[in-house]
Specification:
By secondary structure, this protein is an alpha/beta fold. It has two domains: 163 residues, Tetratricopeptide repeat domain (Serine Threonine Protein Phosphatase 5, Tetratricopeptide repeat), CATH 1.25.40; 153 residues, 3-Layer(aba) Sandwich (Glutaredoxin), CATH 3.40.30.10. 52% of the residues lie in helices and 13% in strands. The strands form three sheets. It has a five-stranded mixed sheet, covered by helices on one side. A two-stranded antiparallel ribbon has the order 1-2. A hairpin with a 5-residue loop joins strand 1 and strand 2. Helix 5 packs parallel to helix 7. The termini are far apart.
């Protein structure tokens, strides 16, 4: 998740977090609007809650210009947002204020505080859009923390009560991912992998009878070089060494990477830097690349272990679990192949 002190306006200023800050209402509130002579003195000078929120956002952005400053003073930032929330329960900006306050609390490590705000959003029947947003944020937080049952419960309520909302549409990818992890049935797919000047199409049909290992990665993936070294070149752990030790596995193991960078240059530079020894998929679509979208891959790095019968052995972000499941899948497949060979 990202934090933003921003909104939309016809005269935007780029904020350090990549969002936009409203300045038009602030200028009007400072210089005043032209009106009838003598009427200004009697006019109600209290800013509407929407404008009050924008003023607060502008003040926070100026005082805390980057993520580090927000993190260091998150209690003070959250307190100011919560003061607005308490005083403006009927505001059209209430859900936005709660969402922003939750992000600030998350940055400070207060997940319980963030959950409290999302929950309040999710039960506010006066604001259906805010309700849908709150449910999505609750579900997404549980999803990213591998709290599968809670995530499914929130996603189900979101799509059941607000099926037409943008938040329900956003939830579909995550729900595909959770359904796949539960069923273990790999959906149909076809990818074109490239290595050097050669291309090959891979799908469930031509991968049948093989253990398939897939890593989803980006050029900024942490410790990716160590993973490549371990599985690609380390004499004690590489796939090549395993196949040399157990020749029956030759031609029965497939490994490829799916790069999720949008810029081709970033992908090519990373591939060369790490000297990746196996085939890759890169189409410049990032997480929207069809294979990643089919599986609902939420972030990188991610790993997939696909068994010879087309069943998912492992799908997730834990490298140690990937190694464990991959080793077990290769071991069982080797034993099965050796038994078959003896017959």
């Amino acid at each position: 998740m990202s934090i933003s002190f921003g909104h939309q306006c016809s005269s935007p200023v780029r904020h350090i977090f990549g969002q936009r800050l409203l300045l038009c209402h602030l200028a009007l509130l400072i210089i005043g609007l032209p009106g009838r002579a003598g009427a200004e003195d009697e006019a109600d000078t209290t800013a509407p809650s929407a404008d009050a929120f924008e003023l607060l956002v502008g003040s926070l952005q100026k005082q805390y210009p980057d993520r580090d400053s927000v993190q260091q003073s998150y209690r003070e930032v959250a307190a100011r947002l919560e003061e607005f929330i308490k005083a403006n329960q009927a505001s059209e900006k209430l859900a936005e204020a709660r969402s922003l306050c939750a992000e600030v609390l998350l940055i400070g490590g207060d997940r319980a505080g963030a959950v409290r705000h999302w929950t309040s959003m999710s039960v506010n029947a006066d604001d259906p859009e805010g309700q849908a947003r709150g449910l999505y944020l609750l579900a997404a937080d549980c999803f990213l923390r591998d709290e599968t049952e809670k995530a499914q419960r929130h996603f189900s309520r979101l799509t059941g009560v607000f099926p037409e909302s943008d938040w329900a549409v956003r939830a579909k990818s995550s729900m595909r991912y959770l359904a796949l992890k539960e069923s273990r049935n790999m959906p149909a797919f076809e990818v074109t992998v490239k290595r050097g000047g050669k291309k090959a199409k891979l799908n469930l049909s031509n991968l049948a009878g093989k253990v398939t290992l897939v890593h989803f990665w980006r050029s900024d993936t942490a410790n990716h070089g160590a993973f490549i070294e371990t599985l690609g070149r380390n004499p004690d752990s590489s796939l090549e060494q395993a196949i040399k030790k157990y020749p029956v596995l030759r031609g029965k193991v497939v490994i490829f990477g799916v790069n999720l960078d949008k810029e081709k240059k970033l992908f090519e530079e990373a591939r060369e830097r790490w000297n990746i020894p196996w085939a890759q998929v890169h189409d410049g679509k990032g997480f929207e690349t069809p294979f990643a979208k089919t599986l609902g891959i939420p972030r990188s790095p991610h790993w997939l272990v696909l068994g010879p019968a087309g069943r998912v052995w492992y799908l997730g972000p834990d490298l140690n679990k990937f190694y464990s499941y991959a080793s077990e899948a290769l071991k069982r497949h080797r034993i099965a192949l050796e038994k078959k060979k003896k017959k």
